[in-house]
Amino acid sequence: MTTPLRPSALRPGLLLAAVGGLCLAVLAGVAFGAVSLPAGSLLREMLDRIPGISIDSGLGERQAAILWEIRLPRVVLAGLVGGTLAVAGAAYQGVFRNPLADPYLLGVAGGAGLGATIAIVVGASGGAVLPIAAFAGGVVAVVLTYTLGGIGSRRSTNTLILAGVAVAAFFAAVQTYVQQRSSDTVQEVFTWILGRLATVGWGEVWVVAPFFLVTAAVLVAHRRHLDVLAVGEDEAATLGVHVPRVRIVIVLAATLGTAAAVSVSGLIGFVGIVVPHLLRLLVGPSYRRLVVLSMVAGAGFLIVADLLARTVIAPAELPIGVVTAFVGAPFFAIVLRTGGRGAT
Amino acid sequence: MVRGRGIRVAYNGRPVLDGVDIEVGVGEWVGLIGPNGAGKTTLLRALAGTVRNSGSLTLGDRSVERLGRREWSRSVALVPQHPVIPAAMTVVDYVLLGRTPHLGYFAAEGVEDLAVVRHVLDDMGLTVLAGRRLDALSGGELQRAVLARALAQEPELLLLDEPTTSLDIGRQQEAMGMVDRLRRRGHTVVSAMHDLTIAGQFADRLLLLSEGHVVAVGRPVEVLTPELIQRHYGAKVAIMADDAGGVIVVPDRAVT
Questions:
Q1: Where are the alpha helices (DSSP H) in chain B?
Q2: What's the pLDDT at A199?
Q3: Which of A61, A64, B171, B200 has its CA 20 to 30 A from that of B6?
Q4: Which residues in chain A touch residue B83, judged by CB atoms under 8 angstroms apart?
Q5: Distance CA A251, CA A139 (A)
Q6: CB half-sphere exposure, A12, CA atoms < 13 A
Q7: What's the maximum distance between 2 C-alpha atoms anywhere in chain B?
């Protein structure tokens, strides 16, 4: 008689499968490149770094340097950016109950693009200036969107989305104008806009990591609220949820993480939409699963995309945004065709 | 005992409810009737505490202002007329949402919450459908799922907005029978009702709203009179009483 109820939850099996996939992606990410590093040695080398364990990895000094100063920081950065974009996309889709919502919805891309363009045009694109300028531009754009869209008031979320469209268009216009005025930097601006994870050392990782941690913690803590918001604002209110407050907390967290990601990687499209939707098709619509799985799967997805970006036409590099769309779009289309009904 | 005094609600400065008094005893079923735009839905929302109203609202000795939204939702549940249905959500996940007001801000649902959900699913005959997606349910099953979510809140006061719209007559009867059963178990019920005959058959008392005012309140036979219905609905009807004290409202064809 008492068949067990099975409400959606992040069961250990699901999480293990996702983390296992991520580990494989990390291993592939550090193993392949201009110089191939044998996987067995890599594992031994990484184990060796754990305090209390000492193994001879068999990697030479140069190979170890490639691993620790070039490959691993880049893989970690790809993971952080991918995880942030995917979970921010999932959160936006939940808050706005709009399957097309992506992390750039509220103008963060346009703002960051303008900030980065200005930094490049005035010749201050070296060091930490570019990410800071992009981050500042993104935050300014989103604050403007909130102000125009009147978040916290009882106006509908559609007003906010439309305000985001207006702000994004305005910033894009200004950005194009600035770019046209100094055509010698067009190449550099475009490279940035198409997204790149070219990094040396751990600098960028330390820049995004704190933001990622805050975003991840806030969104994980609100995964149940995202499920409640699926029944709309009015009904969520009758379930005791303070909707405007919860909405602004979730949107701010997602936006902060996105702005940080954009500042170090440029605009990488598609991750924030494809990853959460693929997961919905696989594990259903509950954010109790989606939030954590989006982070893990988004990280793995971008690590693999970055691996392709730097190996397919080596020694040259493809912009990673091109890879995410080129690989992601057909894959997504196939899953949509074969996966039956959408899970929105 | 639910008591609202001088409930006033205005949207953009336009008053929708203008000083409504309502009193519902424990285990009583009060039907809200009135023409479209009379303020039935708004009164339900005010009772649910989701629209700001100037006036007082108490449940037993607790007032809505003192309790705050989450605690009020532990005692008062609202079933809207057109619930938002997240198509891919499973029945058990959906009903579990009803436990939200009982959970701490960051807390997960525990054994007790699952026990409540299990009980409610059983009660609504939904146990075998627990793993089903909402978009795979029939109209009647969906209505029961929505009711089950409200019951998972373990409310003293159950608010229903037009619970029989878009149900066929068999499912209407089923839904009303279910609400009747809940009322007998001590739930207090306030429902907005479109169908005057159903209102006259099931509710203990009716409250007739017109343009934001209460224009009549009392037993169905006292409120469902040809004069009042003519005046407030602009409809010409014949009223018949059945043997059980219920009322049947029939449109008079001579007018059309």
A1: 40-48, 64-73, 91-96, 111-123, 139-152, 169-184, 196-202, 220-223, 226-233
A2: 67
A3: B200
A4: 231, 235
A5: 12
A6: 0
A7: 62
> Top-level CATH class of B1-75+157-224?
alpha beta
Write the single-letter amino acid at A327. Answer: V
| B238 contacts: CB under 8 Å, gap ≥ 6 | B226, B249, B250, B252
**Is CATH 1.10.3720.10 what the domain over A60-338 is classified as, yes or no?**
no
| Number of Cβ atoms within 10 Å of the Cβ of A169 | 12
Task: Name the residue facing A238 among B78, B96, B118 (closest C-beta).
Answer: B78
Chain segment A275-319, per-residue pLDDT in tens: 998 899 889 999 999 999 999 999 999 999 999 988 888 788 888
The pLDDT tens digits of the residues spanning A72-85 come to: 999 999 999 999 99
Minimum-distance CB partner of B83 among A224, A231, A342:
A231
Angstrom distances, CA of residue B178 to CA of B3, B41, B125, B162, B184: 25, 21, 11, 14, 10
Six-digit token string for B239 = 């009223």
SS3 category, B191: strand
- Rounded to the nearest angstrom, the gap between the alpha carbon of residue A17 and the centroid of all alpha carbons in its chain is 20
Helix %, strand %, coil % for chain B, to 5? 40, 30, 30
Query: In this predicted complex, what is the ipTM?
Result: 0.90
Query: Residue B118 and residue A5: Cβ atoms within 8 Å?
Result: yes
Q: In this complex, which of A2, A241, A285 lies closest to B88 when CB atoms are compared?
A: A285
Q: Which residue has the tokens 């894959």?
A: A331
Question: Domain coordinates of chain B in residue numbers?
Answer: 1-75+157-224, 82-154
Cα distances (angstroms) measured from residue A291 to each of A219, A244, B69 = 7, 20, 26
Cα distance between residue B80 and residue B93, in whole Å = 18
